[in-house]
Amino acid sequence: MDAGATDKIAEIVGNYPDCSFVFTSRTRLPIKLAALLAPSTTLSFLPFDDEVIVKLLEKQLLNPGDTDAVPESLKNKYASVPKTPLLVRLVASTYSSSGKVPESRAVLFEQYAQELLRADAVGFEHPEGLHYVAEYLALHTHVESDGDRGFSQDRAVELLVLIADKLDKGYGVKVPAIVLLRWLERIGFLRNSSDS
Question: Which residue from 165, 180, 81 is spatially nearest to 134, judged by alpha carbons?
């Protein structure tokens, strides 16, 4: 954390001493901030290790007896993918319905997109249209840019204008491009870099 950010947070905490909660992904607070919060209690998440993964799988799998096979497949097939509760939940869901762990990251991430874009999650009348938008943006930004993850809002709007007719006639989606982008941000499919 840079000094400017530390100073700003310290100023805010100093202005509201009766409500001093700081949530951080860092393991240790800068000394200046820790002093303002003293005495303090630090709470941290348990490590997401094999034991926790098995416990989560026991809750997620339809047949808890499958907890022997799934963790090993998870390790072998997704060694380079960070193990998160969402990943474990998606693998468990797929395993419960198909009896196997998804073969590739592409299949897994397709299922992730379907989970994010399901009708009850997006609150959108035509989620299949939103799914098409997400695929189109991924193709014309991430894939065509050789894995570059960022793209401007202006570029996204340009791309959405190109498919506006298909969205309208094929999916019944008649909303401005900016509204589609906000929906994708709200459900976590896109992240606005100015919000980080």
Answer: 180
Question: Residue ranges of the domains in the chain?
Answer: 3-37, 50-108, 119-195
Joined together, the tokens standing for residue 187 give: 């459900």
Q: Residue 172: which region, alpha, beta or left (left: phi > 0; alpha: psi -120 to 50)? A: left
SS (H, E, C) the chain: CCHHHHHHHHHHHHHCCCCCCCCCCCCCCCHHHHHHHCCCCCCCCCCCCHHHHHHHHHHHCCCHHHHHHHHHHHHHHCCCCCCCHHHHHHHHHHHHHHCCCCCCHHHHHHHHHHHHCCHHHHCCCCHHHHHHHHHHHHHHHHHCCCCCCCCCHHHHHHHHHHCHHHHHHHHCCCCCHHHHHHHHHHCCCCCCHHHC
pTM, full prediction? 0.48
Q: Model confidence over 58-116: pLDDT tens digits?
A: 888 888 777 788 888 888 888 877 788 878 888 888 787 778 888 887 888 777 777 66
